[in-house]
Amino acid sequence: MASAHSTAFPPTEPLSLQTGRLPWRKTFIALSVPNFRLWTIGNLLAMTAGWTQRIAQDWLVLELTGSATAVGITVAMQFAPMLFFGLFGGVIADRYSKRMLMVITQSLFAVLSLGLAALALLGIVEAWHVFAIAFATGLVTVVDNPARQVIVTELVGQRNLRNAISINSSVFQLAGMIGPAIAGVLLLTVGAGPAFAINGLACLIVIVMLGMLRTDRMSRVAPSPRARGQLREGLRYAVAKPTIIFPVILIAVFAVFGLTMPVILASYADDVFQVGPGGYGLFNSMVAAGALTGALLSTRRASIRLRTIVIGVGVTGLLQVVAGLMPSITLFSACLVTVGLASLLFLTASNTLVQMSSNISIRGRVMSLYVLVLLGGQAIGGPLMGVVIEKFGAHAGMVVSGGVPALAAGVVAIVLARRGQLRLRVQSGRPFVSIAPRN
């Protein structure tokens, strides 16, 4: 007898996707869809302002406390809600209109950002204020992030979804390059308050742009009806698919150790190279410059396989280890570019593979699990890496942040090989070493 689970969620049907490598003139083919084009403009604005606030927020806490651990706590406050409540966000995203949910979340983001701006501009801000607002922002993100992930399908449909996901990643990384630079200038000239105000105003503009979307041209997904056990269904579905669960495991490890870069880079800027907030913004921009390159390259990717993620995590981790050993600011900055490039290639691949592997009716819950480990892992990793840095130094922190994910990638590769799904192949030519399906 078929289980309720298998009846409700049959195997994912083949999707009408763009296959093969796109010609150069169609690198951004998803932008030919007017709704997605408008969404992308608003997303770039929102992400740039969000990065500006995050960098200013971390540096403000460092100024107020002088503690890398306090910066880690700020990261934890912002991402802890996702760790504890993230799966509920996926259930909400599957039940309600994604556009409506984002109007609500952007409104709340605006209130929180403008409130923090007022505290900073009045000169009465304290570290606990930042912690509290970061936590409240994290609560809103619980709903905003899965809705943001799934709405892309409604905007572009299935055929160009892979290209749209890559463009979204490119936008995020372009914002990650521009935002920290803006934050660095603001911190050097007028302080953190205006950075928070800019983010609040950007959220209000995004609400207007969401209202401009043509709903009649969206591929609306029928909402999931209320039912008992929907969280368990989502988890069972994810665990049953190797193309979902193994990327989620690797992302979880990388989030705890590898994505705590703001904590590490703040210490490099303050203690190692002593370049202040401008240098902190520069370091983040170097990571984002590499990541933007990786995101653009990902739009050219012809296919995505599980081995892409396994190799990507391992390479990114090793590059972070190398960065941790660099003795000069020039070499360190150059390594940050390569770290950003490698990390974005595998992050985009993992996001795409997980979405493509999940049935549309349960995709909100699957992506909430993905976002839970991606953001929730940083809630654990922020304070953890802050302690490592304070006890052993920034160089050791960078080595640990890359070494552990690289080790995890090796373990997953061995597990997959033992299960008969992958084998290591050494050959002449390029690539010299590759992981391939076992015959």
Automatic annotation (TrEMBL):
Query: Which N-terminal stretch is annotated as signal sequence?
Result: none
Q: How does it sit in the membrane?
A: Multi-pass membrane protein
Q: Domain of life, per the record?
A: Bacteria
Annotated Major facilitator superfamily (MFS) profile domain ranges read: 27-420
Name the UniProt key words of this record, in alphabetical order.
Answer: Cell membrane, Ion transport, Membrane, Transmembrane, Transmembrane helix, Transport
Q: InterPro entries this protein is in?
A: ATPase_proteolipid_csu, MFS_dom, MFS_trans_sf, TM_effector
Q: Where are the transmembrane segments?
A: 71-93, 100-121, 127-144, 165-188, 194-213, 234-259, 279-297, 304-323, 329-348, 369-389, 395-417
Q: What name has this protein been given in UniProt?
A: MFS transporter
Q: Which family does it belong to?
A: Belongs to the V-ATPase proteolipid subunit family.
Q: Name one GO molecular function term.
A: proton-transporting ATPase activity, rotational mechanism
Pfam families, per database record: MFS_3
> What GO CC terms are in its UniProt record?
plasma membrane; proton-transporting V-type ATPase, V0 domain
Would I find Membrane among this entry's keywords? yes
Looking up SUPFAM superfamilies in the UniProt record yields:
MFS general substrate transporter
Question: Where, subcellularly, is it found?
Answer: Cell membrane
